[in-house]
Amino acid sequence: MVDFAVFIYAKGILMKALLSVLAVISSLWAGDVVSYKQMSLELATVIAQEAVKTCRERGYQVSAVVVDRSGNLQVALRDVYASRFTTEIAQRKANTVILSGTDSGVFRKNREDIRQELNHIDGIIVMEGALPVISGGTLLGAIGVSGAPGGDKDASCAEAALKTVEDRLVFASDE
Length: 175
Fold this sequence. Notes:
The chain folds into two domains: 2-32; 41-173, Beta-Lactamase (2-Layer Sandwich), CATH 3.30.450. Helix content is 54%, strand content 15%. The protein is built from seven helices and four strands; from the N terminus they run ααββαααββαα. It has a four-stranded antiparallel sheet. Strand 3 (130-135) and strand 4 form a beta hairpin. Helix 2 (41-57) crosses helix 6 (151-164). It is elongated, with a radius of gyration of 25 Å. The mean pLDDT is 90.
């Protein structure tokens, strides 16, 4: 009978030890799957449409491209008379925002020392005209605009577009 009691006691200790080991292992794996915020196609489309609309109202034919936080294309719009090259340039500007985490004009000024080298990276062009899309301090993506006579004008259209969805971005940060 004593042997059975010792067996039950040892089994209890072994089970507690096993559960402790499993708890430690599962906590090590807890970060293996992550969640992140991503803007919807609908929001990305509105941002691109508003940028093109704003530039058109100002007399510029442009392309507007929205990329996600990884630099993947979400939306690309080219106005009727905008050159086909403006779409690629807008996307490359937006990718510069993803690379740098800041607006492309600021990045251009801060990294003028290596701008030419950066422009040799596939998918990047260090020019003014792209802004980050941020919600609650989280980078959701970027909008790039190209086709206006100057990157400052491209950036201004992008900024106006982001202003139109400002409430949506603030509201989304609370979710």
